[in-house]
Amino acid sequence: MRNRRLILDAALDVFSKDGFGGATLDAIAKGAGLSKPNVLYYFEGKSEIYVTLLSQLMETWLDPLIELNKRGDPVEELLDYVQRKLDMSRDMPSESKLFAGEIIQGAPHMGPHLRGELKPLFDEKCAVILTWIKEGRLAPVDPAHLIFSIWSTTQHYADFEAQIGTLLTPDSAMHDAAAAHLEQMFRQLLTPTKS
């Protein structure tokens, strides 16, 4: 288990920087401090390592959306979701870049997972948001595009880390400022107007 974890940790670093096409088993082995044959003892090849990483990531990545509670206060539930996604971008930038790289390439390895796991969950949470809107507990928004907006505004901080690091000083104050901005923006968007 220790060696598998070393390999997966090294692979995450390599894949998030070089993408699937640019990653090599030699680079993964070097990062893990193991020989290439040792890596191949635990995994059949680069594809198996990559799919293993993406599968584990998919589970982690979906957790905040799964936790969206249909019985909770709609605005607060969605703001909590925004915060959890922003925290993941801060705490898991390599994972975010790995996932973004896979999606940008057309999801060649994750297509079945997206259709089998993400699509039903996405549809379910869109239906919850639509119910909140119909009940007057949430301002009218397009549920799908709301979720896309949350993903893009939060994951931007990980996926475009180099750009943000050039323009701002990435530290806890920057993260707090981003959180405050996103909360204000989404709260204004989501809070129903009083009649």
What features would you describe in this structure?
This protein has 195 residues and is mainly alpha-helical. It has two domains: 1-43, Homeodomain-like (Arc Repressor Mutant, subunit A); 54-190, Tetracycline Repressor, domain 2 (Orthogonal Bundle). Helices cover 79% and strands 0% of the residues. It is built from ten helices and no strands. α4 runs parallel beside α7 (111-134), α5 (74-91) packs parallel to α8 and α6 crosses α8 (143-159). It is elongated. It starts with a helix and ends in a 5-residue tail after the last helix. The model has no long low-confidence stretch (mean pLDDT 93).
Total E-strand runs: 0
Query: Helix coverage percent of residues?
Result: over 70%
Could you name the CATH topology of the largest domain? Answer: Tetracycline Repressor, domain 2
Structural class label:
mainly alpha
Shape: elongated
Please indicate the count of domains: 2
CATH-assigned homologous superfamily of the largest domain:
Tetracycline Repressor, domain 2
Assess the beta-strand content as a share of residues.
under 5%
Low-pLDDT stretches: none
Radius of gyration: 19 Å
